[in-house]
Amino acid sequence: MSSFDKRGNPVSYGSQQAVEALDRVCDLLHAYQADPLAEVDRLIAEHPDFALAHAFRAGALATATDKAFEDELGKSLRAAEALLAQANERERMHIGALRAWFEGDWERAVERWGRVSIAYPRDLLALQLAHLGDFYLGYSQMLRDRVARVLPHWHQDIPGFGFVKGMYAFGLEEAGDYRHAEEQGRAAVALNRQDGWAVHAVTHVMEMQGRSAEGAQYLAGNADGWAPNSMFAFHLWWHKALFHLEANDAASALQIYDQHISAAGFTQALELLDGSSLLWRLALLGHEVGARWNALAEKWRARSDDAYYAFNDVNAMLAFAGIGDQQAQERQLAAVRRAAAGQGSNAMMSREIGVPACEGLVAFARGHYRQAIDWLSPLRGKANRFGGSHAQRDLFSWTLTEAAIRLGDRPLAEAFVAERLSWKPHSPLNRAWAQRVGRLQAPQSP
């Protein structure tokens, strides 16, 4: 006996009541509202032989990109695999993608979720998991195109249409189509003000276009929609803090860090990396962040040996560099080097980006600015290989610009600032950097 979810996708489990309950759990994940894991745990307790519920739980844990959740991910995956005989084709494809992810082949996992989405274009869970996987792998074009593949199968009357538009908006933004991205993102938010990913897409457009005052106002103006009960609020607050930094308002950025980013105690890696990247930017600009570095670094120490995802490792190194803890820096470097020597997607990321990025950050922290530039500059063209967004990876540009200024290398500093001004010519932050470069001694003519 089988059922169908509210979008017409086949579900092998015979209880329509359970299928409808899973629909509601999925909607929480689609909107990044709390707490889908708690809700699916209750569902599984009542229906322990519901294969897709176990697969959902495993997918939600996998895309947290945190080794702290790996045991629970494995538990859910094994429970789903134990039910393979009664699962349908769609569910078996989901479970196969999860097995690939668990074994460290994130690229194969994302491709498999993508195949689910092609075969079942209204499978919103498969689309979202593939979309998040594309993000973690830095596949900017696929963030757009994977969603574009299924758009002809969606329309206003299908539940969840706004979530598809929100994902498409983010893909368009990462692919550089800012006008279209903003249109799609705003339309998605109009359909559901709780859709944190759609708000996120519009926010990214404003970040990339240097619309800092407008961006801060946009987030503040619709926070009553996305902030309450959101699992994603910390990241949107991080974006608001970046807007304040762009306007040279460090006090507001620090206030956001204290009230909205660190306040929950950093329970997962996604929160930690936002904390690290914000404090690093503040410190680069010479702002005192007090004991915040120490509290953050203490949380990262528990993950120092994980080497689970290079993007996390680089952000952990920011904290260890920020407090000047050379022992912690060496421990983190050793972990990333071990990962680089292994197999799988993270080994590639660690080899290509993780190791040189961490080496460069260590050099910067020790005042070896020329070495930092030598390590970090070659990464600019391929930093997408370890995932994240353009806004997140902009940290490399920040660090290189500051390294060149501190080194006193005016031609190099001028080059880095010229890059930044070409993207955001009216940015108060970029103009302040340009003024600092202008005070550097000009090189002597030969």
From TrEMBL:
Domain of life: Bacteria
InterPro entries: TTC38
Record key words, sorted: Repeat, TPR repeat
Entries under PANTHER family matching the protein: TETRATRICOPEPTIDE REPEAT PROTEIN 38
Official protein name in the record: Tetratricopeptide repeat protein
Species per Swiss-Prot/TrEMBL record: Pseudomonas lalucatii
